[in-house]
Amino acid sequence: MIEIKNLHVRTEGGAEILKGLDLSIPAGQVHAIMGPNGSGKSTLSYVLAGRDGYEVTAGSVLFKGQDLLAMAPEERAHAGIFLGLQYPVEIPGVSNAYFLRTAVNAVRVARGLPALDAVAFMAEMRRAAKVVELSTEMLKRDVNVGFSGGEKKRNEILQLGLLDPEFAILDETDSGLDIDALSVVARGINAHRGPGRSFLVITHYQRLLDHVRPDVVHVLQGGRIVKTGGPELALELEARGYGWVTEGA
Amino acid sequence: MSDQPWLAALRARAAERFAADGWPDRRTEHWKYTPVAPIERARLAPVDAAAQRAEVQAVRAAVAPEAADFVRDFSDLPPAVQAGIGRVAALEGHAFAARNLLDLHDGLVIHVPRGVRVAAPIVLAWGTPAVGAARPVRVLVLAEAQAEVTVIERFDGDGEGAALTNAVTEIIARDGAQVRYAKAQLERDGAFHVGRVAIEAGRDARVEAHLLNLGGALARTELDVALVAPGADVALKGLFGGRGARHQDQHVTVRHQSPRATSDQDFRGVLAAGARGVFTGLVHVAAGAHHTRATQQNRNLLLDAGAHVDTRPQLEIHNDDVQCSHGATTGRLDATALFYLRSRGLDATTARQLLTLAFAAELTEALPDEALRALALDRLRDAITGG
Ligand SMILES: Nc1ncnc2c1ncn2[C@@H]1O[C@H](COP(=O)(O)OP(=O)(O)O)[C@@H](O)[C@H]1O
Ligand SMILES: [Mg+2]
Fold it and tell me: Could you read off the pLDDT of B185-200 as tens digits, one per residue?
């Protein structure tokens, strides 16, 4: 599904953040990336989604065989990439429902599907909102404005459900959530798992992975994947921290 | 048909005033940011009496039939109504207001008697001035005690070529009256528009005035508000800007002359590719105007490096038991929000339009007329695409 080779990325300021990152995620698998604060996890997610402000100085990213890095952010969304942000953005003046419908129809039309009319979209939205237990009240409000941390993250998973991506990157979707919100979000993610869809779950803590069981766990440190293992690796990191990973290397 | 004697008298006064003041120039403090020279250079000729009367009749004839009874021209005005003309739009220091009277032969008066509620909005659709013409437009809205009315003035632009609209609108809201007013300045690209909206709000009167300053090459509207009795409440909401060679100036003066009155100003500019905006706003609180509440906000969105805005919010308070706030901000579209929208599949232009409309949403949603809202949204979208 996604093939990242020798990825080097620096910021516009010139700091090198990713220094030769390799990662390959087959269709249908859930991979987790863990790593200390500042190790470049969010940077990786932004580069995959196409945010400005980062320069790829070497390496390649293939998504279903296409050169992902050559595509605009919206083209990536159309092709089936989704990024759930660590900090979802507030957009005063735009209602959540309008935003979601505009997004869904932009993606549908780009994929050769007919746009949904208001009635069909409402039905679709209600169904998707139920999965993450978001009330219709939240759909009428402006995008993420006045939402709690948990509501913002549930709104991200709602978008995941509506946009039907093939590859979803979730950047610290668990951070700042209490245990109830975490289990709602985790259930939302699990509901969208399937053979045709791959996930890259970025997290700082083991606890999300108790709910969303990954197929593979990677450790990102110093701008590279320094260790790869099964779900048990997450437990080990939780118990021992990150220091030991590179000490032995 | 010759002019009414009262109009001839007003005109004589205006002539004296204009002879004394002359046109403003860059040294005139109130005109510091807006050049008048391009208007003078265009050598425009005043529209003659017959043409003015014809236009006034055409505009009047287009008013919705259920509201038409409240709209009169200058012939045959009751003296008490006629006395309202020129009452709140002072001439001193206002050369264009003097010029408006000087060139004036007819206008419209909306008079709503005491306690009467006019349900249908009164839409005054001023057409496009002829090329080379200087056109005076004059309106008086006189809402007697407890009356209610909505008045919309539209200045649309078709075709090409220089022309000047010099529009003076006076709004008198007597005790407990409720007036909603909107002025849509959507003149063509080569046109000049200088306008004045002078508002007097009486005891517990409520006036809501919307200004869409979105057309023309050089456009200025002065909003002069006097809160003359306790409990008066005036809200001003202005949206200005556009794309390309435009200069749009909003010059606001709010005078709190009486206790317990409220005024709110919310002006937002959206400017792109050479457009220039000016906001000057003064809130003046007189010595006896205790318990005044006044707010003043100017927010500007510059869509690219070619846009420019000058903003000067000012407070002048001669009292200490008041609640006044003011502020101005100027910024760009939020890059993070743009990325967020694009990552959800919106193309760059759609994302920019959505954020721009969102910036103006509180103002466009408050407009008293659906057609006006659609026009404003179109102009804002064009500011992004250059359409
Ligand atoms: N746009 C940027 N400009 C400058 N520095 C950045 C930018 N984005 C990230 N960084 C820096 O890159 C490093 C990695 O950040 P980030 O990818 O957010 O790490 P993580 O998500 O793993 O905590 C940090 O030192 C951060 O300060
Ligand atoms: Mg991060």
Answer: 999 989 999 999 999 9
Using the mean position of ligand 2's atoms as its centre, give its distance from the Cα of residue A40 in Å.
Answer: 7
Burial class (CB in 10 A: 0-12, 13-18, 19+), B50: exposed
Chain A positions in Cβ-Cβ contact with residue B355 (cut-off 8 Å): 91, 94
CA distance A166 to chain B (A): 14
User: B359: which chain A residues are within 8 Å (Cβ-Cβ)?
Assistant: 93
Output the CA torsion B208→B210→B211→B214 (10° steps).
180
Mean pLDDT of the region B222-227:
98
Per-domain residue ranges for chain B?
Answer: 5-333
Distance CA B159, CA A178 (A): 62
Task: Please list every residue in chain A whose beta carbon sits closer than 8 Å to the beta carbon of residue B358.
Answer: 91-94
CA of A18 to the centre of ligand 1 (A): 10
Identify any residues that bridge with B256 across adjacent strands, giving them in sequence order. Answer: B227, B285
The residue in chain B having the minimum alpha-carbon distance to the alpha carbon of residue A99 is: B341
User: pLDDT, tens digit, for every residue of A162-215?
Assistant: 999 999 999 999 888 888 888 888 888 898 999 989 999 999 888 888 899 999
Tell me what the mean pLDDT of segment B224-246 comes to: 96
What residues does A58 pair with on adjacent strands?
A8
By Cβ distance, the residue of A78, A91, A93 closest to B345 is A78
**For residue B265, which amino acid is it?**
Q
- Pairwise CB contact (< 8 Å): A83 & B343: yes
pLDDT of B1 reads 66
Q: What is the DSSP string of B208-262?
A: EEEEEE--SSEEEEEEEEEE-STT-EEEEEEEEEEESS-EEEEEEEEEE-STT-E
Question: 3-class DSSP state for residue A213?
Answer: coil
- Other Cβ atoms less than 10 A from the Cβ of A228: the count is 14
Cβ proximity of B294 and B321 under 8 Å: no
CA of A4 to the centre of ligand 1 (A): 19
Q: Which of B337, B346, B360 sits opposite A102 (nearest CB)?
A: B346
The answer to whether the Cβ–Cβ distance between A72 and B342 falls below 8 Å is yes
Kindly give, in sequence order, each residue whose CB lies less than 8 Å from that of residue A217, ignoring residues fewer than 6 positions away.
A31, A32, A33, A34, A209, A228, A229, A230, A231, A233, A234, A237
